[in-house]
Specification:
The complex is a heterodimer of chains A (289) and B (409). Chain A is α+β, with helices and mostly antiparallel strands and 289 residues long. Chain A contains 8 helices and 9 strands. Helix content of chain A is 31%, strand content 13%. Chain A is elongated. Classes of the chains: A alpha+beta (289), B mainly alpha (409). At the A-B interface, helix 1, helix 3, helix 4, strand 6 and helix 8 of A face helix 2, helix 4, helix 8 and helix 10 of B. The complex binds iron/sulfur cluster (2 copies).
Chain lengths: 289, 409
């Protein structure tokens, strides 16, 4: 054997740790009440009139084609690679209710944890954005997002991932997202997540007959930047009831955290067995070299 | 191919390596074999489809959708292909770490097989990338997504290929007659083996961990937090079944290259591999059982997906396991091979159940691969076999090492 055992183990251990350094997910700023501090939006479905202004201005500001179709109960329009947001109508126990769909800008986004190039990335201001110069188009973000938000341009040789970015370029300049800016019914409010949660609670408390006592996005998927309040339970509005309250990156954390230990423990173990069995066999001709 | 005569490595060290390689690039033996007649048109068609895909986008050749972003190329080529390549880490563990000399004669071919499987099946990942020109981003370090399981898997693929290349490199050195290089390279074997086994443990399970975040999208009978460990354990018998299967073919096709002694030893090897398979499958089945009880999905058994689950577990795990037990009790080589084939089908079914069939099982429109996806998959497999054959016909993989190797000892 022509290598130094100690060095070898050290190298392996270091390689293991640098490769899989327990990373930074879950390091979000929280204030002293445990509320997350970054921008989000609050959508009030009692105010939404289904005018599709948000769809139109979203398409205009991102160079995408105008919306197709109108909100109609019984028909679910979906976001796709050409439409980052859609408004649908649902027949409920309290009449027709509109719901806007777009990226939820999760506190701990599954897409961001999935992305191996950090192309999908939650900025410290709150928007979850996509950066084309990093993305390799593996679509693992699509596999992982519990809300099925990232969309892929399957028919392009230079395909992009399309999703709502909360108009990050406007936020950086001190502006607010196009949808929130232009909604004629003021159904979409932009602000810090803490302000929005307080506002949502206030509306619910002050109008108990109007709202159900639930803020969608407060807990779901570990909390989201985009939140909803509504006059009827959310399952009447096409929201998935399967989603967990823990964040999704939590699901693969256990596996990722075990990686450094395997890298530190397994090689010396193997080396030990190797030395032991070699001694046993030293009398026989050594033909494995 | 039988007429390929075992070549003697009697070339002179003075011969220029370049000329030598040119000579070696020429095909050997008959060209119009059934395999060539089938594989050449498929490969040509596959290459055309791949070119088409790079010009017109992935959607122009696949049936992938916004709901099902990963299909056959990931679910079969990458996830299943890598499971089958697991034989290399299991065998190197037994031969180099446990020092079980018995398997020494099949180690090289298994490592070669594993190496090529990684190059081609993990390489198939590139075909699936929408923006492949950015593939170096997670490697050169300008954007490390270290919280991503895919980041781990990609890095491990890369490092493992290097480890396997080092493990195999003495054979290349023997082919080239590079004595000094051979000595240095074989001195690195143990380090490469230890590194390789560690990497394998992590990325075999990592392939399962890829799907952990897709909790609500995979049928509950196949989703559990234990997918990584189930993938790891099943890669043991998946890989060994592949070794058995591949061995039985190699021993026919490359008959002339294998020494009398190794021919005789083969049956003993196959039987003891059967024993290991049976053991690993028992452990695997037991784990599946625990996971099932833990998941409390009794009600789901009485649904079409439930029947499918039972078929997988009983027909493709328990049944081949019993067949393996039967074969080594009865010394029956035929049933070992049969069991290996059934096990391999079972592994394909299992990996596809997690990645494709059970993925979005509840969607109104199901994903089914397009014919072009199948052709590209076959292209990948056939090209791998071509390279495999090219190497086996030239390097001392199955045949004995040249005499100078023994002289040196
Ligand atoms: S909704 Fe999906 S795409 Fe948007 S931040 Fe959450 S995980 Fe990412
Ligand atoms: S497709 Fe792009 S953004 Fe999505 S996970 Fe892959 S590299 Fe990241």
């Amino acid at each position: 054997m022509s290598f130094d055992r100690r060095n070898f183990i050290k190298t392996l251990g270091v390689a293991g740790i640098t490769l899989m350094a327990a990373d930074t997910f879950g390091t979000i700023k929280k204030d002293n009440k445990g509320n997350v501090e970054f921008y989000g939006m609050l959508y009030d479905s009692t105010r939404c009139v289904g005018c599709q202004t948000c769809e139109t201005v979203c398409a205009e500001s991102h160079g995408l084609p105008a919306p197709v179709g109108v909100p109609k109960s019984g028909v679910i329009r979906k976001t796709d690679e050409l439409h980052r947001t859609v408004v649908n109508s649902f027949k409920t126990s309290k009449g027709d209710v509109f719901i806007k769909t777009q990226c939820m800008h999760c506190n701990e986004p599954a897409c961001g944890a999935a992305c191996l190039t950090k192309a999908m990335y939650k900025t410290k201001e709150g928007p979850v954005i996509w950066r084309g110069e990093k993305c390799m188009g593996c679509r693992y973000c699509m596999v992982s997002c519990p809300f099925d938000i990232p969309k892929f341009e399957y028919h392009s040789s230079n395909p992009k991932i399309q999703k709502c970015t909360m108009c990050n370029e406007k936020i950086e300049k001190g502006g607010i997202p196009a949808c929130a800016e232009n909604c004629p019914a003021e159904a979409i409010k932009f602000g810090t997540r803490r302000e929005l949660l307080a506002e949502a609670r206030k509306r619910i408390v002050q109008n108990p007959g109007t709202y159900v006592d639930e803020i969608y996005g407060d807990q779901t998927a570990g909390g989201t930047g985009f939140m909803y309040i509504s006059p009827v339970p959310f399952k009447e509005l096409g929201f998935s009831t399967k989603l967990q309250n823990k964040s999704y990156p939590e699901l693969s954390k256990g596996f990722l955290y075990s990686v450094p230990s395997v890298f530190v423990l397994l090689p010396p173990l193997l080396l030990g067995i190797y030395e032991a069995t070699k001694k046993n066999n030293s009398k026989e001709s050594d033909e494995n070299e | 191919m039988n007429n390929i005569i075992s070549q003697k490595s009697n070339f002179k060290g003075s011969e220029s390596t370049f000329k030598f390689i040119l000579k070696e690039l020429k095909p050997r033996g008959k060209f119009l074999t059934p395999f060539n007649i089938i594989s050449v048109p498929v490969i040509v068609l596959g290459v055309i489809i791949i070119v088409f895909r790079f010009i017109n986008g992935i959607g122009s050749v696949t049936n992938l959708s916004q709901e099902v972003p990963w299909g056959l190329w990931i679910g079969f080529d990458v996830v299943t292909g890598v499971a089958f390549a697991g034989g290399a880490y299991v065998l190197t563990f037994m031969v180099y770490i446990l020092n079980v000399k018995k398997y020494h004669s099949i180690v090289r071919i298994t490592v070669l097989n594993g190496f090529l499987a990684y190059v081609f099946y993990a390489g198939a990942l590139l075909l699936d990338l929408g923006r492949p020109w950015n593939v170096i981003n997670p490697i050169i370090g300008n954007s490390f997504g270290t919280s991503s399981v895919l980041f781990l898997v990609a890095w491990h693929f890369l490092l493992y290929m290097i480890a396997e290349l080092i493990e195999f490199s003495p054979a290349i050195a023997e082919w080239l007659g590079a004595k000094r290089a051979r000595k240095i390279l074989s001195g690195m074997t143990i380090a490469a083996v230890i590194f390789g086994i560690t990497l394998s443990t992590l990325h075999q399970s990592g392939l399962g961990a890829l799907y952990l975040m897709a909790k609500d999208k995979i049928h509950p009978l196949w989703y559990s937090e234990f997918i990584p460990i189930l993938f790891l354990v099943s890669s043991i018998f998946a890989g060994l079944s592949m070794v058995i299967f591949e061995g039985s073919i190699s021993h026919k096709v490359f008959f002339n290259q294998i020494s009398e002694k190794n021919h005789k030893a083969q049956n003993g090897i196959v039987l003891s591999l059967a024993k290991i398979c049976a053991g690993a499958m028992f452990a695997y089945f037991f784990m599946q059982l625990l996971v099932f009880i833990h998941g409390k999905h009794w009600d789901l058994l009485n649904t079409p997906m439930g029947y499918w689950f039972l078929i997988e577990m009983l027909g493709f795990v328990v049944f081949p396991m019993l067949l393996f037990v039967y074969s080594y009790k009865r010394n029956n080589i035929f049933t070992v091979k049969l069991a290996a084939i059934i096990t391999m089908i079972g592994i394909i079914i299992n990996r596809l159940n997690v990645t494709v069939i059970g993925f979005r099982w509840d969607a109104p429109i199901h994903y089914f691969p397009s014919w072009m996806e199948f052709v590209v998959t076959l292209t990948v497999i056939f090209t791998e076999i071509w390279i495999f054959r090219w190497v086996v016909n030239r390097m001392p993989v199955l045949r004995e090492s040249p005499d100078w190797v023994k002289d040196e000892k």
